[in-house]
Specification:
- The chain has 10 helices and 16 strands.
- It is α/β, with parallel strands linked by helices and 317 residues long.
- It has 2 domains: 130 residues, Quinone Oxidoreductase, Chain A, domain 1; 149 residues, 3-Layer(aba) Sandwich (Rossmann fold), CATH 3.40.50.
- The strands form 3 sheets. Strands 3, 5, 6, 7, 8, 15 and 16 form a 7-stranded mixed beta sheet that branches. A 6-stranded parallel beta sheet has the order 11-10-9-12-13-14, sandwiched between helices. Strands 2-1-4 form a 3-stranded antiparallel beta sheet, with no helix packed on it.
- Helix 8 links the parallel strand 13 and strand 14.
- It is globular.
Length: 317
């Protein structure tokens, strides 16, 4: 079968042929129609993510949309070495979500992971309540901008968005937009101070897609300016490129910040699949759309180099 293959750890993919999977036990063969090419997908395939498999060569792809027994389904967590950027893949039958009418294959593939990231973080990790205030750090990215819509859909009273580009932040139609430049100490301090009023008013949940200096500035502002309100700070990603920060213990001792993570191992697979199913129902019912950059599987070289925004989706069959 035709597939996108990583031959060795750390290398880029090639479009070639790969052996076909065979149904066995709880694992079923799905005919793939579309799969999103996210940063997570790339990092896992090249062995650079904490959840990466160690089998090479392997087929790229962690989730996708396809056909099983004549019905459209979304699936996640392939069986190595089979991935989702191939004509067929091998999936545990318990890791499949049916697709509702009203959402096409490419949209489902594009929205599943970014939609799940904020939905699971709010519902499963932050125990979000209707009427709470949410700050989304890194809101101009694909997942962050979708998180704004999801927060409102779930009943947020107020949504604050932060990021580097004020023009893009203002287009998200949130209640408050605060841009930052954390490339210098002065910029970090300015961002911290710009958060004063929001922290005084109270921030119940922070969804952080960036980590790094901007995340530390937010935590510093909460500790300095919050009126002893509890805040659940949920780390979802590290898109800033700063995997580590120097977090003073005083920030935690002088505030009611609760640090949480939301990801593949901190959220159960059952919760992740439930979140994805809820996202699909919401998208189908409300006709939610997302900008998508579509490529055919044979165009993997171009797709691999394409910007992550808009969302890259590879059409397989």
């Amino acid at each position: 079968m035709k597939a996108v293959i990583i031959k060795e750890k750390g290398t880029e993919p090639t479009y070639s042929t790969f052996k076909e999977p065979v149904t066995s036990g709880d694992n079923v063969v799905i005919n793939v129609t579309a799969s999103a090419l996210s940063n997570l997908t790339k990092m896992r395939a090249m062995g650079k993510h904490y959840s990466s498999d160690t089998i090479y060569p392997n087929v790229v792809g962690t989730d996708g949309v396809g056909i099983l027994n004549g019905k459209r389904v979304y699936f996640v967590a392939t069986n190595a070495p089979f991935g989702t950027l191939a004509e067929k893949t091998l999936i545990n039958k318990n890791l499949i979500v049916p697709l509702p009418d009203g959402i096409d294959d490419e949209t489902a593939a594009a929205m599943a992971n970014p939609g799940m990231s904020s939905w699971a973080a709010l519902v499963s990790r932050a125990n979000f309540k209707v009427g709470q205030t949410v700050l989304i750090n890194g809101a101009t990215g694909t997942a962050g901008s979708l998180a704004v819509k999801i927060a409102y859909h779930l009943g947020a009273k107020k949504v604050i968005v932060t990021g580097r580009n004020l023009e893009k932040l203002n287009k998200l139609n949130a209640d408050s937009a605060i841009a930052f430049d954390v490339t210098s100490a002065d910029g970090i301090n300015q961002f911290t101070n710009d958060l004063t009023k929001e922290c005084q008013d109270g921030i119940d949940v922070v969804l952080d897609y960036l980590w790094g200096d901007s995340a530390l500035a937010i935590m510093t502002a909460i500790a300095k300016f919050s009126k002893n309100n509890g805040t659940k700070f949920v780390s979802i990603g590290a898109a800033s490129g700063q995997a580590d920060i120097a977090l003073p213990s005083a920030i935690l001792r002088s505030s009611k910040i609760e640090l949480l993570g939301s990801g593949v191992r901190s959220v159960s697979m059952e919760q992740l699949l439930s979140a994805i199913g809820e996202v699909f129902e919401w998208v189908a019912k409300k006709n939610v759309t997302m900008d998508i950059n579509k490529f055919n599987i044979s165009e993997i070289t171009e797709a691999w180099k394409a910007p992550l925004t808009p969302r890259v989706v590879v059409k397989v069959n």
